[in-house]
Design goal:
Elements: E1 2-3, H1 13-20, E2 25-29, H2 39-46, E3 54-61, E4 66-72, H3 79-86, E5 91-93, H4 99-103, E6 121-124, E7 132-139, E8 142-147, H5 148-155, E9 158-160
Parallel strand pairs: 4-6, 6-9
Antiparallel strand pairs: 1-2, 2-8, 3-4, 3-5, 7-8
Length: about 160
């Protein structure tokens, strides 16, 4: 499917938020025949290297606070590093069945932009090395490419070493 004119694609909460902030971005659609596609396959479909396509993972700390971690799609989240970054004794992934209730998004379409409620968010430190980043637009089958600095600033995210080596 690839790149389409923004006017030809239905807006998601994430896109509406970026529009309201006056932040430039591009939308890309991809095929997800079974309603879900792993991140590496998404990167292949939208035609970007896996190093700039990030997945959004929602976690919960020992305190009960939720945290959002965005990491490159081919990498794995190091829960100990994430816990240390957020000042928690322990962090674990939320259950997939709880994604919609917590974020307003569904599995495979979770974006760090436009969640029901803002949560502390960190991107893997590798995001500092790339000018543009590709993330979910908040819907399965849709991605957003945006300047990394604009994204981090818009959602108040920081960076940390979050991936398993």
């Amino acid at each position: 499917m690839g790149k389409k004119n923004k006017k030809d694609i239905a807006k998601t909460n994430a896109a509406r938020f970026l529009d309201s902030e006056g932040i430039a971005y591009e939308l890309f659609e991809y095929e997800a025949p079974d309603g879900f596609l792993d991140g590496v396959s998404v990167a292949e479909q939208v035609g970007f290297p896996v190093e700039i396509v990030f997945k959004t993972l929602v976690t919960v700390g020992h305190s009960g606070q939720h945290y959002v971690c965005d990491i490159p799609v081919a990498k794995e989240l190091d829960l100990k590093k994430a816990a240390k970054h957020f000042g928690e004794k322990k962090i674990e992934m939320i259950h997939a069945r709880d994604i919609t209730k917590i974020t307003g998004y569904i599995k495979g379409g979770c974006s760090p932009i436009g969640m029901k409620k803002p949560f502390p968010t960190a991107f893997d430190i590798s995001a500092e090395e790339i000018d543009e980043i590709v993330i979910s637009a908040g819907k399965v089958g849709m991605q957003i490419k945006i300047k990394t600095d604009d994204l981090l600033r818009a959602i108040g995210a920081d960076t940390a070493d979050l991936c398993v080596e």
